[in-house]
C-alpha cells in the first residue's frame, strides 16, 4: 500500500476512534458515521494494530479507554476539529466566491480590455483577489498553476475545457500614408508585392485566410517584420511599415481615429473567438465559474470594440 493510502487509512481510523469515544459506543458511532458496526470495529482494530497498542478495553456491553487511548483521544479531538474546519472552509469556497484567482491572457487584450473590467469584477465579489499575468506565450495552465486563461484564435486539441466568450473579428489594415504610396489591394491576391507585418505566434504561419465565393482562400505572405505582440504591430502599421491582419479589439480605436484604414472588407476573414480555458469542468471552483460568467456578461456576443468597425 502506498504511503499516502496508509496515511489516509490511519486518518479515517482516528476519526472513527474519536467518534466511538464521543458517542459512547460502537453502535452509536456507526449510526452517526453512516457505516456498519462491523466497519467501526475493523477500523479501530486496524488502528490499534498500526500503533501496536490497545486503545479500548471492550466487554459485550461497555468499553473503557486505556492510558494510550486516553492520550490519543486528546490528540484526536484536535485532529477532528481541524478536519471539520478544513471541510467547512473548502465548502464555503463553493458557496461564497473567495480566495485568489490566477488568470493569464495576452498582453494586448489584458491591457486594453481585461484590465478595464477587473475592478468591477472585484467590486462585485469583494472576497476575491486576482493575480493577473499578461503573456503572449501560450502557458501551461496546470503546470504553471493558473485557474483560467483567456485565449483568442483557433484552439489546439487539448484536455482543457474551452468556453466561448464572444467573437474576435479580424481586419486587414494599413495606414492611409502607406496606401497612398503603394496602392490599395482590391483582392487578396493583390497582397503579393506589398510589405506585410505578421504576428509571430499566429497559428497559420505565413498565410492569411479569406473567404471568396464561399470557399477558403489562403494567401501566401512574406512578412518583412515579425513581432510577438499585437501592440507593436499596431504601432508599426500606423507608421506606414506595411499591411497587417489583426483583431479588432486592438485596431478599433486606430480605425475610428483614421490612423488605420480597413481594406479588403468585402472578403470575409477566418473567424476567431475569445475563449476562457480552465482545466476541469467537474467540481469547477465557484471563483472560476463566476469569473467566466462575468466576462460573458461584459463582452457579450457583440463586444464594444466591434462597434462601427465590423459590418
From TrEMBL:
SUPFAM superfamilies per the UniProt record, alphabetical: Periplasmic binding protein-like II, Winged helix' DNA-binding domain
Alphabetic keyword roster: DNA-binding, Transcription, Transcription regulation
Signal peptide: none
Stretches that traverse the bilayer: none
Record InterPro entries: LysR-type_TF_proteobact-type, LysR_HTH_N, LysR_subst-bd, WH-like_DNA-bd_sf, WH_DNA-bd_sf
One of the Pfam families matching this protein, by short name: LysR_substrate
Gene Ontology molecular function terms on file: DNA-binding transcription factor activity; sequence-specific DNA binding
GO biological process, one term: DNA-templated transcription
Presence of keyword Nucleus: no
PROSITE patterns in the cross-refs: HTH_LYSR
Domain HTH lysR-type: 9-66
Family under the similarity heading: Belongs to the LysR transcriptional regulatory family.
The protein's name in its UniProt record: LysR family transcriptional regulator
Origin organism lineage: Bacteria, Pseudomonadati, Pseudomonadota, Alphaproteobacteria, Rhodospirillales
Amino acid at each position: 500500500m502506498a504511503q499516502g493510502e496508509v496515511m489516509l487509512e490511519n486518518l479515517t481510523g482516528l476519526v472513527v476512534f474519536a467518534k466511538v469515544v464521543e458517542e459512547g459506543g460502537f453502535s452509536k458511532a456507526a449510526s452517526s458515521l453512516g457505516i456498519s458496526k462491523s466497519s467501526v470495529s475493523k477500523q479501530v482494530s486496524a488502528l490499534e494494530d498500526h500503533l501496536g497498542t490497545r486503545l479500548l478495553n471492550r466487554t459485550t456491553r461497555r468499553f473503557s479507554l486505556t492510558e494510550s487511548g486516553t492520550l490519543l483521544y486528546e490528540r484526536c479531538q484536535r485532529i477532528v476539529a481541524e478536519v471539520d474546519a478544513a471541510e467547512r472552509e473548502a465548502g464555503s469556497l463553493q458557496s461564497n466566491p473567495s480566495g485568489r484567482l490566477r488568470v493569464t491572457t495576452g498582453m494586448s487584450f489584458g491591457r486594453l480590455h481585461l484590465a478595464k473590467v477587473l475592478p468591477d469584477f472585484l467590486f462585485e465579489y469583494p472576497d476575491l483577489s486576482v493575480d493577473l499575468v499578461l503573456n503572449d506565450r501560450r502557458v501551461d495552465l496546470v503546470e504553471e498553476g493558473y485557474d483560467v486563461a483567456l485565449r483568442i484564435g483557433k484552439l489546439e486539441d487539448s484536455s482543457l475545457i474551452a468556453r466561448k466568450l464572444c467573437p474576435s473579428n479580424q481586419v486587414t489594415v494599413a495606414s492611409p500614408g502607406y496606401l497612398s504610396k503603394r496602392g490599395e489591394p482590391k483582392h487578396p491576391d493583390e497582397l503579393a508585392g506589398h510589405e506585410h507585418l505578421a504576428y509571430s505566434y499566429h497559428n497559420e504561419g505565413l498565410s492569411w485566410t479569406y473567404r471568396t465565393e464561399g470557399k477558403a482562400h489562403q494567401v501566401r505572405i512574406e512578412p518583412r517584420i515579425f513581432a510577438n505582440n499585437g501592440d507593436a504591430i499596431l504601432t508599426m502599421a500606423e507608421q506606414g511599415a506595411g499591411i497587417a491582419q489583426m483583431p479588432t479589439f486592438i485596431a478599433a480605436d486606430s480605425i475610428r481615429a483614421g490612423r488605420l484604414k480597413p481594406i479588403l472588407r468585402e472578403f470575409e476573414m477566418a473567424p476567431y473567438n475569445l475563449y476562457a480555458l480552465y482545466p476541469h469542468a467537474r467540481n469547477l471552483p465557484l471563483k472560476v465559474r463566476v469569473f467566466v460568467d462575468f466576462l460573458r456578461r461584459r463582452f457579450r456576443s457583440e463586444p464594444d470594440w466591434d462597434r462601427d468597425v465590423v459590418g
